[in-house]
Amino acid sequence: MAILSQLSxxxxxxxxxxxxxxxxYDFEDEYDQEPDHQRPYYFNPNPQAEAPRFPxxxxxxxxxxxxxxxxxxxxxxxxxLKTIPNIPAHVQQLYLQNNYIEAVPAxxxxxxxxxxxxxxxxxxxxxHMIDHGVFAKFSNLVxxxxxxxxxxxxxxxxxSSLERLLLGFNKISQLSGNALEGLPNxxxxxxxxxxxxxxxxxxxxxxxxxxxxxxxxxxxxxQTMPPDLPSSLMYLSLENNSISYIPESYFHxxxxxxxxxxxxxxxxxxxxxxxxLPNLLxxxxxxxKLKQVFYIPRSLQHLYIEDNDLEIINVTLMxxxxxxxxxxxLTYIRVDQNKLTNPISTYAxxxxxxxxxxxxxxxxxxxxxxxxxxxxxxxxxxxxxxFDEAEDDHETLDRETEEDHEGEDNYFHPYFx
Length: 417
Description:
Elements: H1 2-24, H2 29-32, E1 73-75, E2 93-95, E3 117-119, E4 143-145, E5 164-166, E6 188-190, H3 198-201, E7 214-216, E8 235-237, E9 259-261, E10 282-284, E11 302-304, H4 315-318, E12 332-334, H5 347-351, E13 357-359, E14 362-366, E15 369-372, E16 377-379, H6 384-392
Parallel strand pairs: 1-2, 2-3, 3-4, 4-5, 5-6, 6-7, 7-8, 8-9, 9-10, 10-11, 11-12, 12-13
Antiparallel strand pairs: 13-16, 14-15
């Protein structure tokens, strides 16, 4: 019996030891520790669509990085590359921006069949160094980034699947007659900061882009409005050209326009009903030579007419009639650097009851001398209902200065909302 009692005690002690061992063990300890050489994390905006992990090591060019969590992407950016490495067959997103690449030969892409995105921006690529048809074979290509290179011509041919094409900050001065043919799915085309002039657009190269929503032609050499733009267009950027006139009927074919930016041109007179557009929300005509205002559509919310030659703001021209059932939506006007000597008539607050801010800033009332109106910034206090609405829309009523608007002169961000 004594022996059995001793065995029972030993058994109980052993059981207690085992229980305590599992009681103190944290099953997450192994997963909380970071590996010694952890790879950088790449954010996936859609976790639902994250590609499944491959059960085997994914092939990757030795010059690049292929995140295990995103086996379809290959990152070769910012690596001082002068040539394009061989691309594995499985890659769908290829990032080669910010290198010193001068040519795009077909060789490195021999095995690739399902590329959806190529980023070759910020390199030194010239048009004649792109092998003919190197992009056209990618029937699934949706986005192609070639901005900040040394292209002299529009790349051709391109796959019909393409939706977003960025070619800004190059040296493109010509568009061949069929350069934009066969691109029915293009929604965004950026050609800002090139050498395009009116003669290049005489062939109406954009007329057949039936799904085009955003066209950026800022910082070129245009003197007239681009002809025959597609009716699908919603965002048009024409800043920093030399356009001096807009035909009154020009926008009749563009009823979907939401934002129009034409600052830094040579506009002097705007025909009265030029901007009678039902969906226009933003209109930027700053840094021109306007001497008179024009009709404001009821939908417009933000108007920029700073740095012009306006001596008076004729509210009657902007708002010839008032409809209480269809109120004007204008909330913000910027009129600094004009020749105003008096604030805008109080009739503006009757015709535009939603106005919250008028930015007067400094005025160029006399030669080589700037003056300031009694109220450099007018602000209307919001009703409790309006304040609640502003809070819901994540709007702010913080102090606004001229520096706050420096970014307004930039052309549309390629990833517009």
